[in-house]
Specification:
Chain lengths: 207, 207
Amino acid sequence: MEKQHVSAAVVRRLPRYLRYLNDLSRREIVRISSEELSRRMALTASQIRQDFNCFGGYGQQGYGYNVDHLRQEIAAILGLPNQKKTILVGAGNLGHAILNHIDFSRHGFKLTDIYDNNPALVGTSLVGVTVHHIDDLEQRVAADLPDMAIITVPRAAATDVVDRLHTCGVKAFWNFSSLDIRYDDSLVESVHLGDSLMTLRYHLEQR
Amino acid sequence: MEKQHVSAAVVRRLPRYLRYLNDLSRREIVRISSEELSRRMALTASQIRQDFNCFGGYGQQGYGYNVDHLRQEIAAILGLPNQKKTILVGAGNLGHAILNHIDFSRHGFKLTDIYDNNPALVGTSLVGVTVHHIDDLEQRVAADLPDMAIITVPRAAATDVVDRLHTCGVKAFWNFSSLDIRYDDSLVESVHLGDSLMTLRYHLEQR
DNA sequence: TAGATTGTTAATCGATTAACAATC
DNA sequence: TAGATTGTTAATCGATTAACAATC
């Protein structure tokens, strides 16, 4: 049902809608109006209706939106029911944190491999997935191409690792390095922690 | 020199400008034109000039921008030379990763305290800062009010911890919990890892 | 039916881009 | 001086908000 083009701004809001809807569902709230949801989320009701209408009419006049139905529609739009294969490269502090913090299956992914260059880690298992040496990257990726790679290696290693991945066919990255990854044929979602912190520092200044 | 209102969109770009300028500086490039920078950053030259002009004329016609000067101006605008006090609450996987991954002093902060409820951690030291028990939070925060708190506790604990912090005077948060923090008198910068991952999952679907 | 609330169009607002005069 | 490039104004584009007719 995804007809018209959906703007990046709307897409960024979808996960947040999903969080609130899941929460409402947990509290066994069956229906919600755009008005009530706007109060809870600190958005305008207008924006909520516009956003939901990019995809088709999920509401009902005079009634509002059915929480469970809407929740499942958004989950489907995001592609969550269908799991894409992902690998994680760099099982240091940040890699460990991601592995333990994120439930991949609930976010539409399946973790298939972990890579690191630390001999002490290679061969061990983290969250049920074996850690392989980074030297085996090309061979293993060629045998079973992942849909995405999580980049949690130190900055110094990032360019090289990402380039190798791209060369052997990986075209999507969840990037935690402070480097900007950019390829014409690839999808990149970056989490620049330092940038986020500095943004906060700026606003702290203006008070 | 910060006269006119600076939009959130511009502020979000400042750290990225700084990263590129630092990189240019490292390579000993002395001057850069908006045109050349736009190529490197994949922005328009027009946007770059608009952005830099929110704060005052840092360039020179016919020459461009002095890399080092611009770099220092932006660092100053962000407030980096002046360190604000921050505490970190929740020294689990994610907390550890942040502590080891972020150089606070380079981002305008100074880490003063760490809190956790794990007895095995309390009393130990991480990145040179002692871990205190969460029960001591109110007492210690009252004695030395931090400018900001980093929230890396599990979701279940987040509401309570944040509320306690807010009550004893903390009015800025770097939030890693999947909860939305919202107070009229507080500044919140959230890093919603799950949201970021789902956004990526969406775009992976549309290809 | 009357009341509530959506879906959708139109108006507003803000951000990005284009253009060019100012000036180094 | 001539050429380059900024600072700044105007035009465009896109996103948000307001309004209201459609309809459950």
